[in-house]
Each structure stands twice: as C-alpha cells, then as structure tokens.
Amino acid sequence: MVKSKKFLSALLSVCMCSTLLLSSCGGNSPGSSDTAQGKDGVSGKVTYLTLNQEDRDYVTKLTPDFNQKFPDVKIEVVTAPYDQFDQKLQTMIAGNTPPDVTSHFGQAGFMEYYNKGMLLDLTPMMEADKYDPVAVGIPKEIADIYKIEDKYYGLPLNTYVSVLAYNQDLFDRANIPYPTADYEDKSWTWDKMLEYAKKLTVNSDNMEAATYGLEWFWAEPDMRPLYFGAKVYSDDTWTNGGNPSEVYFNSPEVINVYQKLSDLVFKDRVSPTDSIVQGLGGQSGESFTSGKIAMKPAGAWILSGTNELPFKVGIAAIPNAGNDKIRDVLYVDPLFILKGSKNPRAAYEWIKFNLEPEIQEKMIDLSGGNPPSNMKAFEKYCSFFPNIDPKDLKMVYDGGIKYGTESYNHLVNNYSQIWTIVKNETDPCLLTGKSTAADVAPAVQEKVTKLLKDMNSK
Amino acid sequence: MKLNENGRQRLNLYIFLSPWIIGLLVFTLYPIISSLFYSFTDYNIIDAPRFIGIRNYTDLMNDDLFFKSIKVTLYYTCLSVPIQLILSLALALLLNQKVPFMGFFRTSLYLPSMVSGVVMSLLWLWIFNSDFGLLNYLLSLAGIKGPMWLMDESWAIPALILMSLWLTGSGMVVFLAALQGVPVSLQEAAVLDGAGKWQQLRVITLPMISPIILFQLIMGIIDSFQTFTQAVVMTRNGGPHYATYFYVFNLYTNAFKNYKIGYASALGWLLLVTVMLLTYLIFKLSDKYVYYEGGQN
C-alpha cells in the first residue's frame, strides 16, 4: 500500500507529463533540394509515399519495369494506413526526409498542399522534355484539374468518376426497367430515380425482408447542393487557390437540398439511416454488397469486388437533378513532387512512367481495378469487370468526365476545418433527422463565415 | 585514470541508468520543451516556426470548438470517473471474499482491460448499433425501444460512459491489492468491539485504502481528460453535432489535420497546467480525508 504522500505525488507528476507528448512534434522545415543526380541526369533514390492497401502498394511490382529504363534510380515505396497518411507525410517532412512523390491519399487535399507551398511546379521539366499529358492520352479536362495559372503541380494517376451502382436482381424482382447509363437521356431525372426508389423499398422491422431503394450519402456534405444546382462557395474559390470569399449555406436553394436529402431517410424512408448503412456494410464497410440497397451513387471504387457478389450489378448515369452542367463528382488522384525532393528529375520520370498506357494497364490488373487516367488504357479497364457491361462503363465514364467536377476536399483550402463545422452542424438534419434544414442552416452559415473571416485575417 | 571502488560503482550506476536517461531526454523532455516553444509560434510543419507571442493562447478564447471540447470532456469526466471508482471498489470488495472460483472471477473481470482501445471501440460500435446492435436487441426483449446511442447527441456520452465501465477491472485489481494490505488485526479488533460490516468498511477499510482511492481518482481524471480513441474510431470525428468532440481530439485535429502545430501545442500546455492545478487542488482538499500510514512526509 502507498504509505507516503510524496511517493504518490511523484508518480502522478510522471503520468501528467505524457499529456504533452501528443502535441509535440520535433524537427525543422524541409531542407534545400540538393540533387543526387548521376552523369545521365537520372539516378539516385526516389521515395514514393502511398497507402498500405492492395490497390495502392501494387507499385512495388512495377519498379522492375521502371528500372529497365532507369537502372540507376532506386524507387523506395513507403506506405501508411489511410487514417495515418497525413501524419506520416507531416512527420517525414518535419524529419527533413520528405517523400519525393506522393498524392493526396489521406484526408488533406491537393489545395491544402498547394497553398502551403509544398508542391513543385512540374512545368519547367515538362517543357524541357516537351511532355504533353494530353498527347500522352490524358483528357484535357482531367489534366487541367491540378494546373494553376498555367503551371502543372500534379499529373493525374487515377480518375474515378461517380457512378450509380444498382442491384439488377432487385430491379428484376420489382419488374422495373434498368436505369440508363447515358448521360444525354433526358428522361433519367432525380424524380424518376425517386419513383424507382419508392417501388424498390420494402420497409420492415424484419431486417431480412427490408430493402432500400436508394442510399444517398454521396459526396462530402458541402458538395451535395451543387448536384441540385445550388452553390455553397463563391465563384472566386475556384480561381484564387480555394479560398471562398463568401458562403451560401443559408440560401433557400441550399436549405431545400439538405431538407430533400434528409427526407429521403426520415420522411420518404427510401434511404437507410447511417446506423443501418454501418450495419449493412459489415466488415467490408460497403453497404451495397449486402444486396439490400437497390441504387447507390459512389466513386467508381465501388466497382472493385463486384465480380464476387452473389447478385448482378449494373451501373447507370447519375440522373439529372436540375444542374445541366454538373452531375458528377470526380476523384482524380494526381502524382506530385514535393518541394523538398532531393531528386526531382528522377521523381518526374517515375511519374511519367506511371502514366504510360502499358503501365496504366498493368496497374488495373495489379490494383484490382483502379481506373486509369490515360484513356489509351481505358479499354482494358472496361473489360476488367466481367459482370459489368463495358458499353455502360464507357458511357458512364464519358458522361462523368463531361459533367463532372473535382471533389471539394481536393479543391478548397483549409478544408478540414470547414468540413468539421459543416458535418457537425448538419448532423441534426442529415444524420439524425431531429432538426430541419432551415433550423441548422443559420448556424452553418454563421460559423463557416466566421472561420473564413478568421483565416483571411491571418 | 584508475577508479576506486566507489567510483566504479557510480560509473556502473550511470551506465545502467543511461538508456532510461537518454530515452527521457530525447523522447520525453525534448518534445515537451519543443511543444512549449511551438505554443508561442505559428508553425505548420512546412514553414519554419514564426514567433507570435501569446496569440495562440488568446485565439483559444475566441474558438467555439475549444469551449465545446472542454464542455464535452468535463461532462464525460464528471460522470465516468466517480462511477468507475465506485464500481471498481465495489467489485474489489466483492472479490476480496473467500469464496470458490475466486481466481476465475478476478481473471474474468480483469480480462476486458487487456483489450486494446481500438479493438474495444470497434466491438462496442457494434453493440451500440441502433438497428443491429446487441444492446438494443436486449432492450427490445423487455419491450423497450433503445435510443440511437452514438448517433444521438444526447446519448453519445452516456454510451461512452457505459463502455468505459468495461474497464473497471484494472481499477478493481489495484483496489484488491490495497484491500489485502489492510491489517487483519484492525478488523479483528473492530469485530471484538462490536463493529458491524458497514462500520468496519467505513472506519477501517476505507481510511486504510484512502491513498489508493485518491490515486485512482486522480489517474481517472487524467485518463478521462485524455479521451481520444472513441472520438476517432466510434463517432467518426467528434460527432454527432460535436457531442464527442473531446479536448484531446480537438488537439489532435488541429495538429495533424489542420496543420496548426503551434495552436495544438498551446492546447497541450493548457491541458497540462489544468491537470496539474486540479491535482494540486485535490491533494490539498484530500488532507482531511486521506490517511497515510507512514505520515504526510
């Protein structure tokens, strides 16, 4: 038994010090970018930071091919789990050993990196090399996403469009025609989809019998109004480096959208609650695989694994909901070189190598279906999913790129802080249905405006 | 230079202590001092730290999330610490009896404490699922419609407190050790004087283990002030509607998601000072209630 008060005090003081360790992070800013080039100009080590997932760490299998072209370059692949990716990148930078090449594989997006001055301008190397991503096979609208003031800061590795995945078995059972994959089909609208969803929904306390016509938790909460033609950020956001001067969360259009999405779950009951989605997702985390969701819009990564599902899967266009220009969210992962790179020339060659058509085709196989950015490899991608009609996939991709816009988390500066407010303030409306959109909108507007004002004043 | 016996012994002492001393200096003291320095700077890891005086501390006063995180953390602490303390003491008193299979009971109750925080959080995430979870299923058998637990801002913290009771085993083991150190002679003397079970507990057992109760109380407060895993794993970023936006989660978000290392360091130092003051206060107040067998010094 503890008999002395001094002993107890000493023990407690040691315990309290551990509190500080979370916030401490030693190190300096990255050092100068001294090069390690050999006589040919391309040699040395390139560190590539990626995720420790099968669909990302496949690159280790590509390095022998790269070394056939560049035998003097050593590619070192460093991996981190998704939820620790940003910390890993930060600690590598703080430790003065930043990776040469990476992407926004974590929660922070391209614009966050760009605004912090972390990214190297690739344009001089591309000009010296006469490298044109469009000539290589990358669509211009995709290649230009990460081009700012005529300077390339990233070249796209994977282009995910959003697709509307649907369970063909549930459609067959309800005797409803399959939705179209054609974005130009004017009859495929939000109302039509909702009509289908109501017919496909079986509300029952018996979870075995219940099915849901539509799961619509698609895109980040601040991005959802855009699909319906309502904007939340001022137009200057897209030209000034992702810094909105104004937000419109309190506009009637935005309120109407949030209410509509809340009603899907709590009034129309065609969409499952978040808790049911979690339950249906099980260990994989993907609720669509349960076979109880008839339609679900999501990034094209939802196609991975559809080959093994016990039901037939189709993909359709995201229907028209009033915005004639934008109906799709793109998730384009660029490869970029960090400013602290000690070997930018070799890093640049590694990026170019990853975008070659043959390598993009290999990537599709090795990653289990990552979509290419190079359209010369697109045929291979379309044929990768035996259960999905290649013609539908082609149409959905063409339409997705034509009507798509990049996800806001990649384009808005200080996104994490804005997201925290928008997510939490809209929870009572979108997550629990306890408040209306009109109730929550003023607080979102006020708090995001205050945050932007604080950030701009600094 | 040749060392005498005393010198050799002293050298050996420092050689054996050196791994710990180096570890303390490099991995504990240096980060702590660094964080104090960073708390007076604007530092985003990419650019060199820029000295801004006490602005990080003054900015805290205008930060809604800072106050929300304090409120959430205090709410959790005020409920979870006393409940855990009472429950672990009650369990220890029960398991201090001489009954068959006591080893089995003690092991079973301690076992959950050996499960890692993340695994425990994932397990309870399923238990709390309002549509598929075990808890609401059991409530439904009694005709009660269970709440949405972690999805409901009113129920999220009570749910986490309920989950924290799973860990009473670790506190129970400490109390059990303390109870076994209570001199039997005192108990016997009390019995001879006609003291009942309740009186024995009140006037002998509790005073004798009072330093341990104090220790557990302070450790419980420190632990609950540092609640973090649940907000990341179970409620996905402090929701719903900030209901689980704990102080340390706010600190972590600022450091590793918002790239505000200086601001996060200020949060860390404020927490340290608060916990130190609170501990000092509890120590001062405890003078009247805690009995030290070896005296105050």
Automatic annotation (TrEMBL), chain A:
<dbReference type="InterPro" id="IPR050490">
    <property type="entry name" value="Bact_solute-bd_prot1"/>
</dbReference>
<dbReference type="Pfam" id="PF01547">
    <property type="entry name" value="SBP_bac_1"/>
</dbReference>
<feature type="signal peptide">
    <location>
        <begin position="1"/>
        <end position="23"/>
    </location>
</feature>
<dbReference type="InterPro" id="IPR006059">
    <property type="entry name" value="SBP"/>
</dbReference>
<protein>
    <submittedName>
        <fullName>ABC-type sugar transport system, periplasmic component</fullName>
    </submittedName>
</protein>
<keyword id="KW-0813">Transport</keyword>
<keyword id="KW-0732">Signal</keyword>
<keyword id="KW-0762">Sugar transport</keyword>
TrEMBL record, chain B:
<dbReference type="InterPro" id="IPR051393">
    <property type="entry name" value="ABC_transporter_permease"/>
</dbReference>
<feature type="transmembrane region" description="Helical">
    <location>
        <begin position="74"/>
        <end position="95"/>
    </location>
</feature>
<dbReference type="GO" id="GO:0055085">
    <property type="term" value="P:transmembrane transport"/>
</dbReference>
<comment type="similarity">
    <text>Belongs to the binding-protein-dependent transport system permease family.</text>
</comment>
<keyword id="KW-0812">Transmembrane</keyword>
<dbReference type="InterPro" id="IPR000515">
    <property type="entry name" value="MetI-like"/>
</dbReference>
<feature type="transmembrane region" description="Helical">
    <location>
        <begin position="155"/>
        <end position="182"/>
    </location>
</feature>
<keyword id="KW-0472">Membrane</keyword>
<keyword id="KW-1133">Transmembrane helix</keyword>
<feature type="transmembrane region" description="Helical">
    <location>
        <begin position="203"/>
        <end position="222"/>
    </location>
</feature>
<feature type="transmembrane region" description="Helical">
    <location>
        <begin position="261"/>
        <end position="283"/>
    </location>
</feature>
<feature type="domain" description="ABC transmembrane type-1">
    <location>
        <begin position="70"/>
        <end position="282"/>
    </location>
</feature>
<feature type="transmembrane region" description="Helical">
    <location>
        <begin position="12"/>
        <end position="33"/>
    </location>
</feature>
<dbReference type="Pfam" id="PF00528">
    <property type="entry name" value="BPD_transp_1"/>
</dbReference>
<feature type="transmembrane region" description="Helical">
    <location>
        <begin position="107"/>
        <end position="127"/>
    </location>
</feature>
<dbReference type="InterPro" id="IPR035906">
    <property type="entry name" value="MetI-like_sf"/>
</dbReference>
<protein>
    <submittedName>
        <fullName>ABC transporter, permease protein</fullName>
    </submittedName>
</protein>
<dbReference type="GO" id="GO:0005886">
    <property type="term" value="C:plasma membrane"/>
</dbReference>
<keyword id="KW-0813">Transport</keyword>
<keyword id="KW-1003">Cell membrane</keyword>
